[in-house]
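Here is the promised in-class demo. Please do not try to memorize the tokens; focus on the logic of going from shape to residues.
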């Protein structure tokens, strides 16, 4: 039995909440666009970014993503989502997003992730920069 696009989108947000996106959920040629990075590259880079984000949360699992609304038509899913979590510095983090997913053959083929870059740059930017420096050592 094939999964609906709603189900695939919910799997995607559950995977984001776990801090890791499994290969089988994503098309091999997946593309990503984010507010802060523009065309942010491919599947591997996005998966690495999700793991990096998880590494700067207190529990190391990442943020919890909650779907507020989900609308699917043809190969597109639009989702209003909010996230919350605690960062390694003890600060609470919350964000509201609009995601547009494209689904092909039961996998996520593209992600467009819209969010407030000011909050991201202020709260996550320094922590991610420190994590990148540490991983380069």
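The designed amino acids, position by position:
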């Amino acid at each position: 039995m094939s999964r609906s696009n709603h189900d695939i989108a919910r799997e995607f947000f559950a995977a984001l909440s776990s801090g890791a996106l499994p290969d089988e959920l994503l098309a091999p040629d997946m593309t990503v666009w984010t507010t802060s990075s523009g065309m942010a590259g491919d599947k591997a880079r996005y998966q690495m970014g999700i793991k990096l984000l998880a590494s700067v949360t207190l529990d190391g699992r990442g943020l919890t993503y909650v779907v507020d609304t989900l609308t699917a038509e043809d190969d597109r899913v639009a989702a209003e989502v909010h996230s919350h979590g605690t960062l390694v510095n003890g600060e609470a983090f919350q964000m509201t997003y609009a995601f547009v997913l494209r689904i092909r053959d039961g996998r996520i083929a593209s992600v467009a992730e819209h969010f407030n870059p000011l909050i991201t740059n202020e709260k996550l930017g320094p922590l991610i920069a420190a994590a990148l420096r540490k991983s380069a050592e």
